[in-house]
């Protein structure tokens, strides 16, 4: 399971939801990922200290700031580009396996007190965001795949 997280002043997914200040989370679910992986990754994302403190140092998390999360499913984060010019997506979980884990990730964030909006799983979406930094962090949870 892989998340690309960006602190934002605002973000929205059409179709889907919108948030003010917080994190835009692009989430890729891999073959072999489990509910425990979704819970663990949600905890890492919620506690990731990538927001500035009074001195401008990365020392505050999403939980600390009270920000929201926009979670958007993005299987292309698991692309393999090692051979040729056409990416392979064999590492990405099939939709029937990925969607429940995507929902579990969002629910785990909510359980940690984070307000969550989501994109629409499997839909073609327009994602708009204002990256506050700019800061972009890739967070992986190791899985058997």
Question: Could you explain how this protein is built, in words?
Answer:
The structure is a single chain. The chain has 145 residues and is of the alpha+beta class. The chain contains three helices and nine strands; from the N terminus they run βββαββαβαβββ. The strands form two sheets. Strands 1, 2, 3, 6, 7, 8 and 9 form a seven-stranded mixed β-sheet that branches. Strands 4-5 form a two-stranded antiparallel ribbon. Helix 3 (95-111) links the parallel strand 6 (68-73) and strand 7. Helix 1 (35-47) crosses helix 3 (95-111). The relative contact order is 0.32. The model has no long low-confidence stretch (mean pLDDT 95).
Q: Structural class, please? A: alpha+beta
Rg calculated over all Cα atoms: 15 Å
Helical proportion, percent range: 10-25%
Distance between the termini: 10 Å
* Poorly predicted runs of 5 or more residues: none
Quote the beta fraction. Answer: 25-35%
Number of strands: 9
H/E series, N to C? Answer: EEEHEEHEHEEE
In one word, what is the shape?
A: globular
Sheet of most strands:
7 strands, mixed
Indicate the mean pLDDT: 95
Number of helices: 3
Write the layout of secondary structure elements.
Blueprint: E1 2-14, E2 18-19, E3 22-28, H1 35-47, E4 51-52, E5 58-60, H2 62-65, E6 68-73, H3 95-111, E7 116-118, E8 126-131, E9 137-140
Parallel strand pairs: 3-6, 6-7
Antiparallel strand pairs: 1-2, 1-3, 1-8, 1-9, 4-5
């Amino acid at each position: 399971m892989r998340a690309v997280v960006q602190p934002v002043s605002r973000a929205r997914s059409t179709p889907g939801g919108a948030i003010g200040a917080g994190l835009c989370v692009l989430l890729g679910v891999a073959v072999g990922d489990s509910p425990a992986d979704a819970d663990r990754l949600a905890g890492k994302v919620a506690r990731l200290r990538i927001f500035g403190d009074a001195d401008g140092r990365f020392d505050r998390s999403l939980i600390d700031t009270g920000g929201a999360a926009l979670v958007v499913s993005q299987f292309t984060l698991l692309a393999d580009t090692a051979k040729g010019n056409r990416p392979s997506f064999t590492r990405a979980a099939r939709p029937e396996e990925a969607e429940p884990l995507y929902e579990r990730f969002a629910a785990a964030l909510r359980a940690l007190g984070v307000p969550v909006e989501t994109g629409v799983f499997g839909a073609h979406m327009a994602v708009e965001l204002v990256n506050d930094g700019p800061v972009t962090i890739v967070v992986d949870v190791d899985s058997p795949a």
